Amino acid sequence: MQIYGDTNSGNCLKVKWVCDKLALPYDWIEIDTRKGETRTPQFLAMNGAGQVPTVAFDDGRTLAQSNAIIRYLARDSALIPRDAFVAAKMDEWLFWEQYSHEPYIAVCRFQLVYLGKDASELDPEKVKRGYAALDRMEQHLSGNRFFAGEAVSLADVTLLAYTRVAHEGGFDLGRHAAVRRWIGETEAFLGLPPAR
């Protein structure tokens, strides 16, 4: 399979990490979204939304949306809990991440790192909601080692992507000890070097 992705994107890295952890063979095709490479006729033929990540399988089928991709790639693996309810709790976190975490943590990071904005220019509501997401994670992780069950699942992979670099978006994890512990454990599980 071919993974069309941008290594600056946590959503794309989720797919790479799952493939690497499960030893799934793939070709990575780096896409520069800022140069309009997702807007070419060839790319739009694969993914009409013009977004990365997009996976093209050898049989010609394509799949988009990071959490849908990793859910498909990790089927029948230990990254998806066997217990149906625990798997549903994992999915609960996958949906929460895209709605209540990524739009704030990732967007603030994008504005500071890639648009060169100053922290004072960030939308205060996005910052507030980003901290609310981190606080929700801290609350959960204070009583649980991982997000769904007793082992790393796709919930942890998906939440790690932008949480490990939240500081690049101006978020201080100093009061989030359980989140910091979880970041280290999940990075180690995935074989990732600690985020700088």
Automatic annotation (TrEMBL):
<feature type="domain" description="GST N-terminal">
    <location>
        <begin position="1"/>
        <end position="81"/>
    </location>
</feature>
<protein>
    <submittedName>
        <fullName>Glutathione S-transferase family protein</fullName>
    </submittedName>
</protein>
<feature type="domain" description="GST C-terminal">
    <location>
        <begin position="83"/>
        <end position="196"/>
    </location>
</feature>
<dbReference type="Pfam" id="PF13410">
    <property type="entry name" value="GST_C_2"/>
</dbReference>
<dbReference type="InterPro" id="IPR036249">
    <property type="entry name" value="Thioredoxin-like_sf"/>
</dbReference>
<dbReference type="GO" id="GO:0004364">
    <property type="term" value="F:glutathione transferase activity"/>
</dbReference>
<comment type="subunit">
    <text>Homodimer.</text>
</comment>
<dbReference type="InterPro" id="IPR004045">
    <property type="entry name" value="Glutathione_S-Trfase_N"/>
</dbReference>
<dbReference type="InterPro" id="IPR040079">
    <property type="entry name" value="Glutathione_S-Trfase"/>
</dbReference>
<dbReference type="Pfam" id="PF13409">
    <property type="entry name" value="GST_N_2"/>
</dbReference>
<dbReference type="InterPro" id="IPR010987">
    <property type="entry name" value="Glutathione-S-Trfase_C-like"/>
</dbReference>
<dbReference type="InterPro" id="IPR036282">
    <property type="entry name" value="Glutathione-S-Trfase_C_sf"/>
</dbReference>
<keyword id="KW-0808">Transferase</keyword>
<dbReference type="GO" id="GO:0006749">
    <property type="term" value="P:glutathione metabolic process"/>
</dbReference>
